[in-house]
């Protein structure tokens, strides 16, 4: 630990690349901490039986805080480093959890959720950034995709805790789960003390020797002369030196030619992941199954838990094959399938449902059609499976790898902030939407998925299998509206090619300096 991290931990790419994913799990915990109490009488009584609009506002408090947290990463990550930023996010979550657990009214609950959201926003932006900078290209997509898997695990575990505690009478049925969710954050903040800092951040702060040693421990079994280690350090230095000549690191850099295009891609992908409709199926699945005609609190909870299990299981193939399948095919197939399932759900709801009354609430519900109820539940499951194996993992992986070093922290934070803006809007809008336009809500989200397919087909180039520095060549090719023309081997270089480029860059710098001196 004299290095400030454990070399044994650093030598295992899967441990060093996946542990920080606990930060993603915090988002999952929050989703279930709300979805699991929507039918809890003790929760309703404690917080004044919130209306659909009030409940939407309570849920939306978390993504509101997350928006601020995601933007804060742009400063924190560059100033204090990736590692320390992750540690801070964990302790902020603990504070938010304490406030939620102790909440006695809506105001206190909302404040606690905003603070927890601040933590989730920081973690959701910094964890994929850290993972992309610390893992080798061969498995980068797989490990960044584990961010999504950790979210699904957070949803599942917290939901089962909520399910078990639902048998407890009184406030403890929701306070115990809200209190227990601080444990993973404590593990994250303490555990990260044993992990290395991002070597790319170290090079950018003129700490080349530390960066080389970390790369050696990460990818060269401690040998700084390993070919992959030398390739990476050479590429990182070349890229950082090049970027330093491009101007100051500020938000204005995000508007520069070549960069603005990528900011648009990163932010729009996060936007599409929210507009896909996954919010309905995670936050408000109880309302969805209620509308399908599935009544009874226990039956609904069990049906919900099946969906969360599928979410976890179906993310596994994406983690394993994301670098083999590529980002584009996964996104294109996923958006088509999700749109298809949502149109089926909306069509069945519209064709066989009618306005009814459940627990005093006006609800569009399917009654007397047992087969249709089962079909809606199955199509909802298939929708979640389609998201889990495609859009879910790629929506975190792609924005974390497409930006140059000088703007990466700021650009990733802006992309992630776009996620939280739409998360906030949808978290608030969906309950009133289901209460007013009912089944038409599914058609709206289905249409969003087909729009996303068109956007991705024309404008999103493939990035799998390349170093972060080689991805620069992908975007240098152009093809702004013909992304399918970018080949899978575009940008890939050998160590000799990287060294030749670096030598050419050094010679160019010397000649430029001589010309200025002569002038």
TrEMBL record:
It is found in: Membrane. It is a multi-pass membrane protein. PANTHER family: MAJOR FACILITATOR SUPERFAMILY (MFS) PROFILE DOMAIN-CONTAINING PROTEIN (PTHR48022:SF35), PLASTIDIC GLUCOSE TRANSPORTER 4 (PTHR48022). This is General substrate transporter. The chain crosses the membrane at residues 12-34, 54-73, 85-105, 111-130, 176-195, 263-286, 306-323, 330-355, 375-399, 411-430, 442-460. Pfam families: Sugar_tr (PF00083). Signal peptide: none annotated. It catalyses: myo-inositol(out) + H(+)(out) = myo-inositol(in) + H(+)(in). Residues 16-464 form the Major facilitator superfamily (MFS) profile domain. Keywords: Membrane, Transmembrane, Transmembrane helix, Transport. GO terms for cellular component: membrane. One of its GO terms (molecular function) is carbohydrate:proton symporter activity. SUPFAM superfamilies: MFS general substrate transporter. Its main location: membrane. Belongs to the major facilitator superfamily. Sugar transporter (TC 2.A.1.1) family. It comes from the Eukaryota.
């Amino acid at each position: 630990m004299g290095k400030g991290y454990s070399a044994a931990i650093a030598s295992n790419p899967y441990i060093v690349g996946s542990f920080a994913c606990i930060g993603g799990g915090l988002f999952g915990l929050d989703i279930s901490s709300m979805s699991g109490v929507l039918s809890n009488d003790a929760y309703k009584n404690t917080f004044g039986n919130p209306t659909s609009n009030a409940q939407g506002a309570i849920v939306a408090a978390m993504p509101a805080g997350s928006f601020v947290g995601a933007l804060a990463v742009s400063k924190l990550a560059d100033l204090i480093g990736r590692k320390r930023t992750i540690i801070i996010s964990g302790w902020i979550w603990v504070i938010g959890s304490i406030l939620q657990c102790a909440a006695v009214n809506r105001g206190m609950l909302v404040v606690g959720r905003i603070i927890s959201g601040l933590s989730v926003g920081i973690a959701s932006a910094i964890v994929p950034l850290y993972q992309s900078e610390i893992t080798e290209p061969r498995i980068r997509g797989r490990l960044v995709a584990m961010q999504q898997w950790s979210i699904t695990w957070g949803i599942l575990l917290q939901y089962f805790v909520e399910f078990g505690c639902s048998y407890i009478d009184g406030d403890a049925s929701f306070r115990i789960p809200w209190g227990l969710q601080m444990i993973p954050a404590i593990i994250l903040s303490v555990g990260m003390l044993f992990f290395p800092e991002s070597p790319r951040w170290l090079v950018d702060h003129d700490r080349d020797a530390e960066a080389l040693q970390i790369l050696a421990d990460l990818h060269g079994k401690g040998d700084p002369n390993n070919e992959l280690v030398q390739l990476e350090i050479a590429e990182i230095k070349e890229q950082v030196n090049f970027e330093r000549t491009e101007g100051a690191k500020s938000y204005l850099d995000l508007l520069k030619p070549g960069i603005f295009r990528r900011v648009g891609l990163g932010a729009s992908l996060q936007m599409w992941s929210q507009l896909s409709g996954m919010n309905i199926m995670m936050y408000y699945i109880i309302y969805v199954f209620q509308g399908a005609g599935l009544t009874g609190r226990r039956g609904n909870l069990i049906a919900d838990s099946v969906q969360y299990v599928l979410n976890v299981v179906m993310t596994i193939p994406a983690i394993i094959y994301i670098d083999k399948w590529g980002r584009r095919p996964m996104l294109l197939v996923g958006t088509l399938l999700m749109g298809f399932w949502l149109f089926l759900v909306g069509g069945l709801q519209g064709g066989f449902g009618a306005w009814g009354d459940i627990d005093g609430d006006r609800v569009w519900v399917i009654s007397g059609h047992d087969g249709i109820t089962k079909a809606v539940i199955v199509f909802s499951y298939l929708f979640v499976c389609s998201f889990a194996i495609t859009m879910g993992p790629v929506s975190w992986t792609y924005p974390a790898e497409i930006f140059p070093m000088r703007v990466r922290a700021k650009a990733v934070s802006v992309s992630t902030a776009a996620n939280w803006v739409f998360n906030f809007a949808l978290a608030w809008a969906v309950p009133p939407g289901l209460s007013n336009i009912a089944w038409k809500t599914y058609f709206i989200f289905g249409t969003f998925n087909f729009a996303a397919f068109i956007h991705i087909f024309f404008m999103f180039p493939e990035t799998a299998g390349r170093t972060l520095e080689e991805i620069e060549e992908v975007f240098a090719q152009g093809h702004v509206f013909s992304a399918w023309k970018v080949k899978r081997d575009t940008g890939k270089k050998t160590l000799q090619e990287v060294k030749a480029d670096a030598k050419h860059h050094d010679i160019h710098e010397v000649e430029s300096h001589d010309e200025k001196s002569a002038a």
